[in-house]
């Protein structure tokens, strides 16, 4: 059995004796949540969380998903996986949407379908018998936690496995991901120094990027780089362009989604005189990650592989 590192331990079940049956208790951010039985009418928000549900074969336990179309993140693989399920809301769902679907479970995160102080929260849904499991990466918005690692994604899959009575499947899936990643990284050529990387999500006046608590930091490190915004004590965050220019990234990761294409984002950086001396722009070292790869989910392994190849060109 592969032990989970301490950094992810807070997200795992505290009652191993009951791991294969119910009730089960999991840690969801700063809450302990007990499930008397597996949810039967689940809703997931966002493309990456929905893909976690699909990876565990949970479509028969779902009544729909939310928060995909308005963000233009739906791709063909997800489209095929949720073909029989309705999108209940193209953006963050309201409480009425979830109640109207008679949902008994909501898999979301802070800024992934819920907002701190918003109307849809674990407390507000709990009043109506809808239990919530929060995406681990997003917990930084409601509690202090270590910087993001790939273990966060594994922890979410393992917790979903316990919540839905599919612990064996979840463990097998996570162990397969671990083995695949270990085999891949073992064969990588060694870099003389970590590659300096900037994550460009969106924005022209000010860029929206990934700080130390966002999953791209973990993906970049696993691939042999360092996020130049690793010292930004936040998750996904808006910053100024000045520190980007000062920190001289060697590679720029473009997150592809929404109405502005990856090609347009690259064109903006290449055409702006302020960026003309940045090594990544000079050397045309851009790597595109789809939104579903750059947010916590099963395609993080593919993302690490693509980043590792780009860092070694």
Question: What would you say this structure looks like, in words?
Answer:
The structure is a single chain. Mean pLDDT is 92; it is low at 1-19. The chain has 13 helices and 14 strands. The strands form four sheets. Strands 3, 4, 5, 6, 7 and 8 form a six-stranded parallel sheet that branches. A four-stranded parallel sheet has the order 11-9-13-14, sandwiched between helices. It has a two-stranded antiparallel sheet with strand order 1-2. The chain is an alpha/beta fold. The chain is 35% helix and 19% strand. It is globular, with a radius of gyration of 19 Å.
Structure keywords:
single chain; 313 residues; alpha/beta; six-stranded parallel beta sheet; four-stranded parallel beta sheet; 14 strands; 35% helix; disordered N terminus
Structural class: alpha/beta
Report the helical percentage: 25-40%
* Helix and strand run: HEEEHEHEHEEHEHHEEHEEHEHHEHH
Query: What percent of residues are in strands?
Result: 15-25%
Average pLDDT over all residues: 92
Q: What is the 3D shape?
A: globular
Number of E-type strands: 14
Radius of gyration, in angstroms, nearest whole number: 19 Å
Note poorly predicted spans.
Answer: 1-19
Question: Main sheet, how many strands, which sense, barrel?
Answer: 6 strands, parallel
Measured between the Cα atoms of the first and last residue, the distance is 36 Å
Count of helices? 13
